Structures are given as C-alpha cells and as structure tokens.
Amino acid sequence: MRRSRTDEAGRVTLDDAKVKANASRHKVMSYDRMLKDEERLKQEIADMMAQADSADDEQFGDRHGDEIPDELARGESRLAKIREARAALEAAARQKAAEHAAKMEAEGRDHRTAPDTAVPEDKDQWNFTDPESKIMKTSNNGFDQCGKAQIVTTEDQIIVAADVTNQANDVRHVEPMVDQLQSNIAAAKLTCGVKEFLADAGCFSEEDTKTITDAGMNPSIATQRLKHNEQILECAKGLPAGDLTPKQLMARRLRTKKGKQTYAKRKWMVEPVFGQIKACRGFRQFFLRSLNKMQGEWTIVCLTHNLLKAFNAFSSLGPARMWKAKITTANSACTAFGISDRLLPHSSSGQASVPYPHRGHAGDKHLRIK
C-alpha cells in the first residue's frame, strides 16, 4: 500500500492558469475611446435638449412636457457610467505613479513622475461588467476577460496555497504566495518543512529568488522558456565562476544532473492539478464577480480538491481507520484555508467522535478518537 504523505510538504511548486471571468470582453472600453464617447454623448444630449425645448406642446399629448424622453435618459445614464469609469482609471494612474515615485525615492534615485498630473495611457481599458477582471492572452492565441488562478502544490498534488490575481505578470506573485504558503503550513501543523521551491520561467527575478532563500527554501526557477523539443545545454564541470549573476547561477544549477531531475518534477506536481480541476471537475469559468469573490470561489475549489485527494488516499484503509483519517485530514484542510469550523462532532465527555458506518445502521456506532 502506498504511504500517504498528505501531512508533509518537503518540495512544492508554484504555477498559475488563466480562468475565464464572469464578464464579457465586448463590454470593454479604452481610455481614449472614453474621452471621445464622452464628448459625443454630451453633444447628443445637448442637441436633444434643444429639440425638446423647441418642440410643440402637441408632441407631449396629456403629459406636462417636463418628462425626460427615454432616449435622453439612456444617453445620460451611459454618460454617467463612462465618467465614473474614466475617473476610476485616472485614480488608478495617479496611484501607480505615486507608488513608482515612492519606490524611486526609497532607492535614492531621481524621478520625473508627477503623481498629481498622471493620466492613463490611451490603451488602458475598463470592463463595465466586472472592472476587476482583465483582458489576458489565452492558450488558444486569443484574448478574454480572465482572472489568473495560482496554486502551490506538494508532490502528492495537495494544494497548500491558492490565490487569484488580475495581473498577467508572474514575477509579482512569488512573495505573497510564499507568505501564504508558510502561513498555511503553520495552520495545518504539517510535520515536515518545505525545503525546495519550484517555479517556471515567468516567476524568475533576483528579488523573488532572495525571498525564497530567506524563507529557508532552495529555489529552482527556470530562467528562460525553451522551444518545443529544444534541449537544455549541459553544465560545465567544476566550480562556477565567481563573477556570475544570480540569473546565470540559477541557469547553471538547472543544467546540472540533479537540477534537471528536480525541476522535471514540476510537470507532474502541479500541471495535472489544473487538468483535474478544469477537465475532470469542469471548472473553467468563475461564477462570481470582483477579485475578492473570485478568490473565495477559487479557495473553495482548491479546498474540495484537497478533500478528494485525501479521501482517495485513505480509501484502502479499514472502515474505522479510514473515517478517522478522512475527517481528521478534512479538519486540517479547512484550517489551512482559514475555515475554523470543526467537522468532528464532540461527545458529552469532550472527546471527538466519528460515525462508524456499517450495514443497516450508519449512525448508531461511534469510534472514539483519543
């Protein structure tokens, strides 16, 4: 019988996948088009108001004549939404400029950024269905409104960290995922610490490598993408030169025999998990809108994935041991994802008890858990 390692996490890997958001890509407007449509709508509304003022009273029938026509109401409503979206884009541009200026000043460098006068770029977009989802390039070489779902998995394909972001750049996500990984491991009380952290080429940066090293893990992150059937160059024998950059050192490490074997494990540690969630369970689109709700939805999907893995891992045990192990593991999974409600019922003596299923009377007997 294969030993279950659902309570260990010696090696983990990070990956992400784009999941379609509950938003239409046809409800997107760029900042440049907002400015043009705003002027056009203001002119159209002014023209309609002028026509209404000069219209004959017979045009209104029994009405008083001060009602707003449906066409004019639709124009004013659309103008208000465009102005609101434009203001949000401009506020985001000023915030981004302020963060950039603060970073430059902290590093002691001069900058020419004026946060108060910063404006969005013409191609910056706003989605009226779900503004927090973003246009991303998908695997079919097309573009769609998506959220980027991220997971950190163990060698047993157990998810130990999960998040959703609307940023296409992977480099910015390593540090928050490492922080969440350590927090979840502490909450779940895993018996083994994480020693190795694997990630693909999109996650490499010197800052993220240092973050992983400071967390006590050995990073193995690809430094470049390889074309199909392209082979990795062999590593030169001997000690590395002393003038190599962190990126060159990482590339050299992955070209060694041990480095190749370690990084190759990423394929079956994390890639199948997305396949199981998308293809087997049919989760290909978020049903909720806004980033916060998408994060909650993705957390539930990852939690149920862990429960399925744990239940299958203990399926070969006897009934009593199986139910004890299953519910104990379910409690650990809930704790790791911030769900405090315990699944185990408690008897009057304070001891946790688990229903012992048997033929005829599934809830009559209870197995004591010491």
Report on this structure.
The chain is an alpha+beta fold and 370 residues long. The chain has 2 domains: 161 residues, Nucleotidyltransferase, domain 5 (2-Layer Sandwich); 103 residues, no CATH class. The protein contains 10 helices and 10 strands. The strands form 3 sheets. Strands 1, 4, 5, 6, 7 and 8 form a 6-stranded mixed β-sheet that branches. Strands 2-3 form a two-stranded antiparallel ribbon. Strands 9-10 form a two-stranded antiparallel sheet. Helix 9 runs antiparallel to helix 10. The chain is globular. The two termini are 25 Å apart.
Q: Give the number of DSSP strands.
A: 10
Uncertain spans, ≥5 residues at pLDDT below 50? 340-370
Sheet having the most strands: 6 strands, mixed
Q: Radius of gyration, Cα only, in angstroms?
A: 28 Å
Helix content: 40-55%
Write down the CATH topology of the largest domain. Answer: Nucleotidyltransferase, domain 5
CATH class call of the largest domain: Alpha Beta
**Shape designation:** globular
Q: In the CATH classification, which architecture of the largest domain applies?
A: 2-Layer Sandwich
